[in-house]
Design a protein that fits this description.
The complex is a heterodimer of chains A (155) and B (103).
Chain A: H1 3-23, H2 29-35, H3 38-42, H4 46-53, E1 59-60, E2 64-67, E3 71-72, E4 78-84, E5 89-96, E6 103-108, E7 113-121, E8 127-135, E9 138-148
Chain B: E1 6-12, E2 15-21, E3 44-51, E4 54-61, E5 70-76, E6 83-90, E7 95-101
Antiparallel strand pairs in B: 1-2, 2-5, 3-4, 3-6, 6-7
The chains are: A alpha+beta (155), B mainly beta (103).
Chain lengths: 155, 103
Amino acid sequence: MNIQRRDTLKAGGGLGMLGLLVAAGLIRPELAEAAWNKGAFDAKSLDAAMAAMGAGKPAESADVQIAAPDIAENGAVVPVGVVSNLPKTEQISIMIEKNPNMLAATFDIPEGTIADVQTRVKMGQTSDIYAVVKADGKFYMSKKEVKVTLGGCGG
Amino acid sequence: MANPMRIRASAKDGVTEVRVLMSHVMETGQRKDASGALIPAHFITELTAKHNDKVVLSAQFGPSVSTNPYLAFKFKGGAKGDKVTVGWTDNKGESRADEVQIS
Protein backbone atom coordinates (compact mmCIF):
# COMPACT_ATOMS: atom_id res chain seq x y z
CA MET A 1 0.00 0.00 0.00
CA ASN A 2 1.32 3.42 -0.88
CA ILE A 3 1.09 5.35 2.36
CA GLN A 4 2.28 8.64 0.94
CA ARG A 5 -0.47 8.62 -1.58
CA ARG A 6 -3.08 8.17 1.15
CA ASP A 7 -1.69 11.10 3.13
CA THR A 8 -1.76 13.30 0.07
CA LEU A 9 -5.33 12.36 -0.59
CA LYS A 10 -6.30 13.07 3.01
CA ALA A 11 -4.57 16.47 2.98
CA GLY A 12 -6.26 17.31 -0.30
CA GLY A 13 -9.65 16.34 1.09
CA GLY A 14 -9.14 18.46 4.19
CA LEU A 15 -8.25 21.50 2.16
CA GLY A 16 -11.27 21.02 -0.04
CA MET A 17 -13.54 20.94 3.02
CA LEU A 18 -12.06 24.17 4.37
CA GLY A 19 -12.49 25.81 0.99
CA LEU A 20 -16.10 24.75 0.93
CA LEU A 21 -16.74 26.17 4.40
CA VAL A 22 -15.16 29.49 3.43
CA ALA A 23 -17.22 29.55 0.27
CA ALA A 24 -20.37 28.83 2.25
CA GLY A 25 -19.62 31.78 4.52
CA LEU A 26 -19.30 29.61 7.63
CA ILE A 27 -15.75 30.77 8.17
CA ARG A 28 -14.70 34.27 7.32
CA PRO A 29 -10.93 34.32 7.70
CA GLU A 30 -10.51 38.06 7.26
CA LEU A 31 -13.04 38.81 9.98
CA ALA A 32 -11.83 36.10 12.36
CA GLU A 33 -8.26 37.40 12.21
CA ALA A 34 -8.98 41.07 12.65
CA ALA A 35 -11.63 41.12 15.33
CA TRP A 36 -9.82 39.58 18.29
CA ASN A 37 -8.87 42.43 20.60
CA LYS A 38 -5.36 41.31 21.59
CA GLY A 39 -4.58 44.42 23.61
CA ALA A 40 -7.61 43.92 25.83
CA PHE A 41 -7.09 40.17 26.28
CA ASP A 42 -3.39 40.65 27.13
CA ALA A 43 -4.06 43.46 29.59
CA LYS A 44 -2.82 42.73 33.10
CA SER A 45 -4.84 45.34 34.96
CA LEU A 46 -8.43 46.38 34.97
CA ASP A 47 -7.64 49.92 33.84
CA ALA A 48 -5.48 48.66 30.95
CA ALA A 49 -8.17 46.26 29.79
CA MET A 50 -10.83 48.97 29.94
CA ALA A 51 -8.56 51.34 28.04
CA ALA A 52 -7.89 48.73 25.33
CA MET A 53 -11.63 48.30 24.92
CA GLY A 54 -12.11 52.03 24.71
CA ALA A 55 -14.28 51.91 27.82
CA GLY A 56 -12.38 54.43 29.94
CA LYS A 57 -13.96 54.54 33.37
CA PRO A 58 -17.46 53.15 32.99
CA ALA A 59 -20.23 54.24 35.33
CA GLU A 60 -21.71 51.67 37.66
CA SER A 61 -25.25 50.79 36.65
CA ALA A 62 -27.98 48.80 38.36
CA ASP A 63 -29.31 47.84 34.93
CA VAL A 64 -26.35 45.52 34.44
CA GLN A 65 -26.90 42.36 36.40
CA ILE A 66 -24.44 39.57 37.04
CA ALA A 67 -25.68 36.12 37.86
CA ALA A 68 -22.88 34.20 39.53
CA PRO A 69 -22.60 32.14 42.70
CA ASP A 70 -21.45 33.86 45.94
CA ILE A 71 -19.16 30.94 46.61
CA ALA A 72 -17.69 28.79 43.86
CA GLU A 73 -16.39 25.46 45.08
CA ASN A 74 -14.52 24.74 41.88
CA GLY A 75 -12.73 27.72 40.37
CA ALA A 76 -12.21 25.88 37.09
CA VAL A 77 -15.90 26.11 36.25
CA VAL A 78 -17.75 29.17 37.51
CA PRO A 79 -21.08 29.85 35.80
CA VAL A 80 -21.52 33.54 34.99
CA GLY A 81 -24.50 35.17 33.37
CA VAL A 82 -24.86 38.82 32.45
CA VAL A 83 -28.14 40.56 31.72
CA SER A 84 -28.28 44.15 30.55
CA ASN A 85 -31.55 46.05 30.77
CA LEU A 86 -30.05 49.09 29.11
CA PRO A 87 -31.59 49.99 25.77
CA LYS A 88 -29.39 49.51 22.70
CA THR A 89 -26.93 47.19 24.39
CA GLU A 90 -24.23 46.47 21.83
CA GLN A 91 -21.60 44.59 23.75
CA ILE A 92 -21.12 42.65 26.97
CA SER A 93 -17.72 41.81 28.43
CA ILE A 94 -16.87 39.66 31.42
CA MET A 95 -13.70 40.38 33.40
CA ILE A 96 -12.21 38.63 36.40
CA GLU A 97 -10.11 41.10 38.34
CA LYS A 98 -7.54 38.75 39.85
CA ASN A 99 -6.96 36.41 36.91
CA PRO A 100 -3.65 36.72 35.05
CA ASN A 101 -5.62 37.62 31.92
CA MET A 102 -8.60 39.40 33.29
CA LEU A 103 -10.76 39.74 30.22
CA ALA A 104 -12.58 36.43 29.86
CA ALA A 105 -15.00 37.08 27.04
CA THR A 106 -16.58 39.81 24.96
CA PHE A 107 -19.95 39.31 23.30
CA ASP A 108 -21.18 41.51 20.49
CA ILE A 109 -24.93 41.77 20.58
CA PRO A 110 -26.51 42.62 17.24
CA GLU A 111 -30.02 44.07 17.07
CA GLY A 112 -32.62 41.41 17.69
CA THR A 113 -30.46 39.48 20.12
CA ILE A 114 -31.39 39.79 23.78
CA ALA A 115 -28.67 41.16 26.07
CA ASP A 116 -28.59 38.03 28.19
CA VAL A 117 -25.61 35.71 27.93
CA GLN A 118 -24.36 32.90 30.10
CA THR A 119 -21.04 31.15 30.06
CA ARG A 120 -18.53 29.51 32.38
CA VAL A 121 -15.17 30.95 33.39
CA LYS A 122 -12.07 29.94 35.31
CA MET A 123 -11.09 31.81 38.46
CA GLY A 124 -7.66 31.48 40.04
CA GLN A 125 -8.78 32.89 43.38
CA THR A 126 -11.52 34.86 45.10
CA SER A 127 -12.12 37.97 43.03
CA ASP A 128 -14.58 40.52 41.79
CA ILE A 129 -16.24 39.71 38.49
CA TYR A 130 -16.90 42.78 36.34
CA ALA A 131 -19.51 42.98 33.65
CA VAL A 132 -18.87 45.84 31.25
CA VAL A 133 -21.71 46.75 28.94
CA LYS A 134 -21.60 49.06 25.97
CA ALA A 135 -25.02 50.54 25.30
CA ASP A 136 -25.79 53.33 22.84
CA GLY A 137 -22.08 54.16 22.59
CA LYS A 138 -21.54 54.49 26.36
CA PHE A 139 -19.98 52.05 28.78
CA TYR A 140 -21.54 50.85 32.02
CA MET A 141 -20.40 48.28 34.52
CA SER A 142 -21.37 46.23 37.49
CA LYS A 143 -19.38 43.94 39.74
CA LYS A 144 -19.90 41.01 42.03
CA GLU A 145 -17.52 39.20 44.33
CA VAL A 146 -17.21 35.44 43.96
CA LYS A 147 -15.37 33.47 46.64
CA VAL A 148 -13.38 30.56 45.32
CA THR A 149 -12.54 27.70 47.63
CA LEU A 150 -10.46 25.72 45.09
CA GLY A 151 -8.49 27.64 42.45
CA GLY A 152 -9.01 26.90 38.79
CA CYS A 153 -5.58 27.80 37.50
CA GLY A 154 -3.45 25.41 39.56
CA GLY A 155 -0.99 23.06 37.89
CA MET B 1 -10.42 17.97 14.02
CA ALA B 2 -12.01 18.80 17.33
CA ASN B 3 -15.08 16.98 18.55
CA PRO B 4 -18.50 18.25 17.50
CA MET B 5 -20.26 20.90 19.54
CA ARG B 6 -23.49 20.10 21.26
CA ILE B 7 -26.00 22.74 20.29
CA ARG B 8 -29.60 23.05 21.41
CA ALA B 9 -31.88 25.69 19.99
CA SER B 10 -35.49 25.99 21.05
CA ALA B 11 -38.06 28.57 20.04
CA LYS B 12 -40.73 29.73 22.48
CA ASP B 13 -42.98 32.81 22.35
CA GLY B 14 -41.00 34.40 19.52
CA VAL B 15 -37.66 34.03 21.28
CA THR B 16 -35.10 31.39 20.45
CA GLU B 17 -32.77 30.19 23.17
CA VAL B 18 -29.50 28.69 22.02
CA ARG B 19 -27.23 26.65 24.26
CA VAL B 20 -23.84 25.51 23.06
CA LEU B 21 -21.32 23.19 24.64
CA MET B 22 -18.02 23.23 22.81
CA SER B 23 -15.33 20.63 23.14
CA HIS B 24 -11.99 22.37 23.62
CA VAL B 25 -9.04 22.14 26.02
CA MET B 26 -8.90 25.93 26.60
CA GLU B 27 -5.29 25.73 27.79
CA THR B 28 -4.31 29.04 29.41
CA GLY B 29 -0.57 28.97 28.82
CA GLN B 30 -0.06 29.36 32.60
CA ARG B 31 -0.06 25.70 33.57
CA LYS B 32 2.99 23.47 33.79
CA ASP B 33 3.19 19.78 32.96
CA ALA B 34 4.77 17.12 35.20
CA SER B 35 8.32 18.03 34.12
CA GLY B 36 7.78 21.73 34.85
CA ALA B 37 7.58 22.89 31.25
CA LEU B 38 4.86 25.37 30.39
CA ILE B 39 1.95 23.95 28.43
CA PRO B 40 1.43 26.29 25.48
CA ALA B 41 -1.79 28.26 25.36
CA HIS B 42 -4.52 26.80 23.21
CA PHE B 43 -7.94 28.39 23.44
CA ILE B 44 -10.89 29.51 21.35
CA THR B 45 -10.58 33.15 20.34
CA GLU B 46 -13.59 33.79 18.14
CA LEU B 47 -17.08 32.50 17.97
CA THR B 48 -19.93 33.38 15.64
CA ALA B 49 -23.53 32.21 15.83
CA LYS B 50 -25.92 32.62 12.96
CA HIS B 51 -29.64 32.21 12.50
CA ASN B 52 -30.00 31.20 8.86
CA ASP B 53 -27.55 33.73 7.39
CA LYS B 54 -27.93 36.49 9.97
CA VAL B 55 -25.30 36.83 12.69
CA VAL B 56 -27.07 36.70 16.06
CA LEU B 57 -24.02 36.68 18.31
CA SER B 58 -20.30 37.09 17.90
CA ALA B 59 -17.93 36.60 20.78
CA GLN B 60 -14.27 36.84 21.58
CA PHE B 61 -12.89 34.51 24.21
CA GLY B 62 -9.74 34.74 26.30
CA PRO B 63 -8.01 31.92 28.14
CA SER B 64 -10.14 32.56 31.26
CA VAL B 65 -13.12 30.80 29.72
CA SER B 66 -13.58 27.30 31.11
CA THR B 67 -12.49 24.08 29.49
CA ASN B 68 -15.22 22.83 27.16
CA PRO B 69 -16.86 26.26 27.02
CA TYR B 70 -20.57 26.64 27.59
CA LEU B 71 -22.55 29.47 26.12
CA ALA B 72 -26.22 30.36 26.24
CA PHE B 73 -27.97 33.29 24.61
CA LYS B 74 -31.35 34.32 23.24
CA PHE B 75 -32.46 36.10 20.12
CA LYS B 76 -35.84 37.34 18.89
CA GLY B 77 -37.45 35.45 16.06
CA GLY B 78 -36.57 32.03 14.83
CA ALA B 79 -39.04 29.31 13.96
CA LYS B 80 -39.06 25.57 14.19
CA GLY B 81 -36.83 24.07 11.50
CA ASP B 82 -34.70 27.21 11.01
CA LYS B 83 -30.98 26.70 10.92
CA VAL B 84 -28.66 27.82 13.70
CA THR B 85 -24.95 27.63 12.95
CA VAL B 86 -22.16 28.09 15.47
CA GLY B 87 -18.54 28.32 14.43
CA TRP B 88 -15.33 28.97 16.36
CA THR B 89 -11.66 29.57 15.62
CA ASP B 90 -8.84 29.08 18.13
CA ASN B 91 -5.42 30.67 18.58
CA LYS B 92 -3.77 27.86 16.61
CA GLY B 93 -6.00 28.51 13.63
CA GLU B 94 -8.14 25.42 14.12
CA SER B 95 -11.82 25.86 13.57
CA ARG B 96 -15.07 24.03 13.67
CA ALA B 97 -18.64 24.79 12.68
CA ASP B 98 -21.78 22.88 13.55
CA GLU B 99 -25.39 23.37 12.66
CA VAL B 100 -28.72 22.44 14.21
CA GLN B 101 -32.37 23.01 13.47
CA ILE B 102 -34.47 24.96 15.95
CA SER B 103 -36.83 22.67 17.81
